[in-house]
């Protein structure tokens, strides 16, 4: 198994290299540059021109690429043109925000989806099952930004149960209990929105697996041994039905950092998704490339993790 | 307050996915009015010629009844989809939102009047000795920084030394700044100080310049309008300033409020600056928060904020009838225009490039251009699509410049008959009888228009104008066949793309009305590429020494505007009205450029603990 893991990690290097080349060239192909938005009639075009020269925008692409990759290899992704800060600092701060939001969302997803999936599978064709299936189809069909807008409008502005933007109330001092509560409170509404939209896959997989499992031989054996139905579900069926969910766990873990553009935009939450779209719109090359590299790395890592997890939980699967 | 922000504008300032579905039923749900709402507003419209012509129904000032409370916290929404950068030093920032934040604690040392010209009312006064190309900046009051240290001439000079420093990488070391004698030598490291800047005494600084023009009063010619706290910043090397906590986390400032706490890209808390030179502010705190344009209407309706940095005009419907706020309005420092491509930018010519007008350019016929302008029903568009918040622009100087904007200019009013007559005269006749005019040689004639995409109404507006043009027999096609995204649009316009005959764009003018930077021979932003000796003379006259006399200058502006009207190479389309909703618990607020409440933040008061819902 270790051999496989090392091999997979080594393959990542050329994969990431190709990704870096692609994203670098594509990013530079976008019309405009980070200085386009700085133009006022009072801005001296010569100053902007000089800034472009200093930033190396007129060098041949392979020179620019070499400079970038050489620094990136040492962990230096450069300065953001928009924020005038090292890219790593920005991604660090935004990453933490996104991580917190995603963690809470994922916990909520599992809390909602697993019981619903199990119930739907167990009481197949019942009214409960049909309601759950209907819910999961609706939540699958509804666009993220629509639900976010509805939620922020209803629960934020109309009922005023939740704060509508930001990550924390600025009047509180960091470190106090109120401060952490405020952070959590700010997370809740976006996390619930995220969670309600993210349950479909898990509900459907669980439901199907449980329905399939009901007819399996091992269930019949267990029943004929006289084990109560309740126990058959909780001990035998449930564990087996979780396998496909475990298969996604790797992606779920690495996906914690990718953020959601829509939810973060609507809730004014400063996370990775918003950072990504903002950097594209403002042509903040250094942030764009660093983020794509990070997302690419996470996706590769996610697939590896998923394979490893699967091999642990399902003894029939062996990686070698 | 002098601002050098303002941008190459996209077709709408803020494009937003609006909470539209939810906006319609506002009236029926606002019935839970809190008790403190007995103070119904007495609105007090200030009449001010130029501005009322634009948005006659909206006042510039509001005074609300109600008992003022002691202290209080003002809640301010910074309306943006992108977070602010947090570079909180006037010399270094490049992001307009950072400027909005700095407004509360500004280091600005000059006060300005309704034309954005420097007056004697500020921390410092300006004396101009035009004959000797010298200016003197004198600190008039005993002013202290927010940490209690007195403001001195050294702080005024230090601001110049930051911008002029060899390690400075920002956008402010420009041609203007190099007008200061010795700035270039200091920049290249050949000199230890800027030789043209002399400290006379602790309160006085003398600055020698290569030339002094009327722009000096708008903060041009290299004059810098801010002080930088030398005692606080000098220990940090200039190249590290931008990432230093002195700039980002705990700036020392001169304004009414000082920074207390900041959450990156998200919110800022200010507290009253007890050392403020005009007196300690009446409010205890100001809390500023980033709010996406999508929800600002709702946020204001539900009383989460007292006011907003800006409000998307296309969401005006969402606030206009709300009872908990007053919508104030003022003209924006901007105009939209339609430009005609008449030549090319030659990078190699002159010192750093020149505009070269091409005699044979397709659109090089003043009558044709005038006809295009007369054919457009701009008023209708302003009313229908912008709820009257855009009005037909009559000249290239927006009405925000109270005494330079000339109310008597007519501009191109909607007159299709005149357009047709002009086209006939110029020889554009419909030869084959298909309703579309052919060119002077009887060949098929289509004009290619480049226009920006932005809001959902942009498409409809452009279509409307195309019908206008068709009605006078002009076939107008879109460059690339559709609206063009902001960045690509300016890329194409800048590069004089041969696919563009005319283009719709907008300029934020900044506070200096001088048109040289946009229409000069050596100006890369002169996107029409239109240059004539007459135009050069007219432009030079506006910025000449004689024009330091305001009357002379107004006259020079008028001559230039009339010339531009005749030539019609850049046709002004809209003047824009900026709307500023203010919650009714704010005792008094004024958005008039001459008496802007943002310049007198220490006087702000509120009549309730929280904004009225």
Automatic annotation (TrEMBL), chain A:
<feature type="domain" description="ABC transmembrane type-1">
    <location>
        <begin position="95"/>
        <end position="306"/>
    </location>
</feature>
<feature type="transmembrane region" description="Helical">
    <location>
        <begin position="99"/>
        <end position="120"/>
    </location>
</feature>
<feature type="transmembrane region" description="Helical">
    <location>
        <begin position="242"/>
        <end position="267"/>
    </location>
</feature>
<keyword id="KW-1133">Transmembrane helix</keyword>
<dbReference type="InterPro" id="IPR000515">
    <property type="entry name" value="MetI-like"/>
</dbReference>
<dbReference type="InterPro" id="IPR045621">
    <property type="entry name" value="BPD_transp_1_N"/>
</dbReference>
<dbReference type="Pfam" id="PF00528">
    <property type="entry name" value="BPD_transp_1"/>
</dbReference>
<comment type="similarity">
    <text>Belongs to the binding-protein-dependent transport system permease family.</text>
</comment>
<keyword id="KW-0813">Transport</keyword>
<dbReference type="InterPro" id="IPR035906">
    <property type="entry name" value="MetI-like_sf"/>
</dbReference>
<feature type="transmembrane region" description="Helical">
    <location>
        <begin position="9"/>
        <end position="27"/>
    </location>
</feature>
<feature type="transmembrane region" description="Helical">
    <location>
        <begin position="184"/>
        <end position="206"/>
    </location>
</feature>
<feature type="transmembrane region" description="Helical">
    <location>
        <begin position="132"/>
        <end position="155"/>
    </location>
</feature>
<dbReference type="Pfam" id="PF19300">
    <property type="entry name" value="BPD_transp_1_N"/>
</dbReference>
<keyword id="KW-0812">Transmembrane</keyword>
<protein>
    <submittedName>
        <fullName>ABC transporter permease</fullName>
    </submittedName>
</protein>
<keyword id="KW-0472">Membrane</keyword>
<keyword id="KW-1003">Cell membrane</keyword>
<feature type="transmembrane region" description="Helical">
    <location>
        <begin position="287"/>
        <end position="313"/>
    </location>
</feature>
Automatic annotation (TrEMBL), chain B:
<dbReference type="Pfam" id="PF00496">
    <property type="entry name" value="SBP_bac_5"/>
</dbReference>
<feature type="signal peptide">
    <location>
        <begin position="1"/>
        <end position="20"/>
    </location>
</feature>
<dbReference type="InterPro" id="IPR000914">
    <property type="entry name" value="SBP_5_dom"/>
</dbReference>
<feature type="region of interest" description="Disordered">
    <location>
        <begin position="24"/>
        <end position="58"/>
    </location>
</feature>
<dbReference type="InterPro" id="IPR039424">
    <property type="entry name" value="SBP_5"/>
</dbReference>
<dbReference type="InterPro" id="IPR030678">
    <property type="entry name" value="Peptide/Ni-bd"/>
</dbReference>
<comment type="similarity">
    <text>Belongs to the bacterial solute-binding protein 5 family.</text>
</comment>
<protein>
    <submittedName>
        <fullName>Oligopeptide ABC transporter substrate-binding protein</fullName>
    </submittedName>
</protein>
<feature type="domain" description="Solute-binding protein family 5">
    <location>
        <begin position="127"/>
        <end position="519"/>
    </location>
</feature>
<keyword id="KW-0732">Signal</keyword>
<keyword id="KW-0813">Transport</keyword>
<feature type="compositionally biased region" description="Basic and acidic residues">
    <location>
        <begin position="30"/>
        <end position="47"/>
    </location>
</feature>
């Amino acid at each position: 198994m270790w051999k496989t893991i090392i091999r997979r990690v080594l393959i990542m290097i050329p994969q990431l290299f190709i990704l870096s080349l692609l994203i670098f060239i594509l990013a530079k192909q976008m019309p405009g540059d980070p200085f386009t938005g700085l133009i006022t009639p009072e801005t001296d075009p010569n100053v902007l021109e000089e800034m472009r020269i200093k930033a190396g925008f007129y060098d041949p692409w392979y020179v620019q690429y070499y400079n970038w990759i050489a620094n990136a290899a040492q962990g230096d992704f450069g300065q953001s043109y928009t924020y005038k800060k090292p890219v790593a600092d920005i991604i660090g701060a935004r990453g933490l925000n996104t991580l917190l939001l995603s963690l809470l969302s994922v916990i909520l997803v599992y809390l909602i989806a697993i019981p619903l999936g199990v119930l739907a599978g167990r009481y197949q064709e019942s009214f409960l099952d049909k309601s759950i299936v209907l819910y999961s189809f609706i939540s699958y069909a509804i666009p993220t930004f629509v639900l976010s807008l509805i939620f922020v409008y209803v629960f934020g502005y109309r009922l005023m149960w939740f704060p509508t933007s930001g990550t924390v109330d600025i009047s509180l001092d960091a470190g106090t209990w109120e401060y952490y509560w405020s952070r959590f409170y700010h997370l809740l509404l976006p996390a619930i929105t995220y969670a309600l939209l993210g349950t479909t896959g898990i509900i459907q997989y669980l439901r199907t697996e449980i329905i399939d499992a009901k007819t399996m031989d091992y269930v019949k054996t267990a029943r004929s041994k006289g084990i109560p139905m309740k126990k058959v579900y909780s001990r035998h069926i449930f564990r087996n039905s979780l396998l496909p969910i475990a298969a996604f766990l790797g992606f779920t873990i690495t996906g914690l950092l990718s953020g959601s553009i829509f939810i973060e935009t609507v809730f004014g939450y400063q996370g990775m998704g918003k950072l990504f779209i903002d950097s594209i719109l403002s042509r903040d090359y250094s942030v764009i490339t660093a983020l794509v590299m990070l997302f690419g790395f996470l996706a590769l890592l996610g697939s590896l993790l998923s394979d490893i997890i699967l091999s642990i939980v399902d003894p029939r699967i062996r990686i070698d | 307050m002098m601002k050098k922000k303002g941008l190459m504008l996209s077709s709408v300032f803020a494009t937003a996915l609006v909470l539209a579905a939810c906006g319609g039923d506002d009236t029926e749900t606002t019935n839970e009015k809190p008790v403190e709402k007995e103070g119904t507003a007495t609105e007090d419209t200030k009449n001010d010629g130029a501005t009322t012509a634009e948005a006659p129904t909206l006042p510039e000032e509001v005074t609300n009844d109600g008992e003022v409370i002691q202290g209080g916290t003002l809640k301010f929404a910074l309306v943006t989809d992108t977070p602010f950068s947090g570079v909180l030093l006037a010399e270094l920032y490049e992001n307009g939102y950072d400027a909005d934040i700095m407004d509360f604690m500004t280091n600005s040392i000059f006060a300005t009047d309704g034309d954005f010209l420097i007056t004697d009312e500020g921390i410092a006064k300006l004396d101009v000795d035009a004959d000797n190309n010298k200016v003197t900046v004198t600190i008039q009051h005993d002013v202290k920084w927010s940490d209690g240290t007195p403001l001195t001439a050294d702080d005024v000079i230090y601001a110049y030394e930051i911008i002029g420093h060899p390690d400075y990488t920002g956008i402010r070391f420009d041609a203007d700044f190099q007008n200061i004698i010795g700035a270039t030598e200091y920049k290249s490291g050949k000199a230890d100080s800027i030789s043209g800047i002399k400290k006379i005494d602790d309160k006085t600084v003398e600055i020698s310049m290569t030339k002094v023009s009327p722009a000096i009063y708008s903060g041009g010619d290299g004059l810098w309008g801010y002080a930088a706290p030398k005692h606080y910043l000098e220990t940090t090397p200039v190249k590290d300033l931008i990432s230093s906590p002195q700039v980002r986390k705990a700036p020392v400032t001169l304004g009414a409020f000082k920074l207390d706490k900041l959450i990156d890209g998200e919110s800022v808390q200010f507290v009253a600056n007890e050392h403020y030179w005009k007196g300690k502010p009446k409010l205890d705190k100001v809390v500023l928060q980033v709010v996406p344009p999508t929800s600002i209407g709702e946020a204001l309706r539900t009383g989460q904020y007292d006011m907003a940095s800006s409000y998307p005009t296309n969401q005006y419907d969402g606030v206009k009838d709300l009872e908990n706020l007053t919508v104030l309005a003022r003209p924006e420092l901007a105009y939209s225009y339609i430009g005609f491509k008449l030549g090319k930018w030659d990078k190699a010519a002159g010192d750093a490039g020149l505009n070269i007008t091409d005699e044979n350019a397709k659109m090089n016929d003043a009558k044709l251009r005038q006809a295009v302008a007369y054919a457009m029903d701009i008023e209708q568009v302003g009313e229908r699509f912008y709820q009257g918040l855009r009005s037909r622009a009559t000249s290239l100087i927006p009405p925000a410049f109270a005494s330079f904007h000339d109310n008597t200019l007519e501009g191109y009013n909607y007159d299709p008959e005149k357009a047709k007559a002009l086209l006939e005269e110029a020889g554009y006749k419909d030869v084959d009888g298909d309703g579309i005019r052919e060119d002077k040689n009887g060949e098929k004639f289509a004009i290619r228009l480049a226009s920006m995409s932005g809001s959902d109404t942009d498409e409809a507006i452009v279509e409307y104008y195309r019908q206008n043009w068709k009605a006078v027999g002009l076939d107008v096609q879109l460059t690339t066949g559709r609206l063009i995204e902001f960045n690509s649009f300016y890329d194409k316009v800048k590069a004089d793309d041969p696919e563009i005959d005319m283009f719709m764009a907008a300029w934020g003018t900044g506070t200096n009305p001088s048109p040289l930077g946009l229409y000069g021979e050596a100006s890369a932003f002169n996107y029409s590429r239109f240059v004539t000796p007459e135009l050069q003379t007219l432009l030079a006259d506006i910025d000449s020494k004689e024009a330091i006399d305001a009357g002379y200058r107004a006259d020079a502006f008028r001559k230039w505007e009339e010339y531009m009207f005749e030539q019609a190479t850049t046709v002004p389309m809209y003047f824009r009205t900026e709307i500023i909703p203010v919650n009714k618990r704010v005792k008094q607020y004024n958005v008039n450029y001459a008496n802007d409440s943002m310049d007198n933040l220490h006087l702000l008061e509120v009549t309730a603990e929280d904004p009225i819902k």
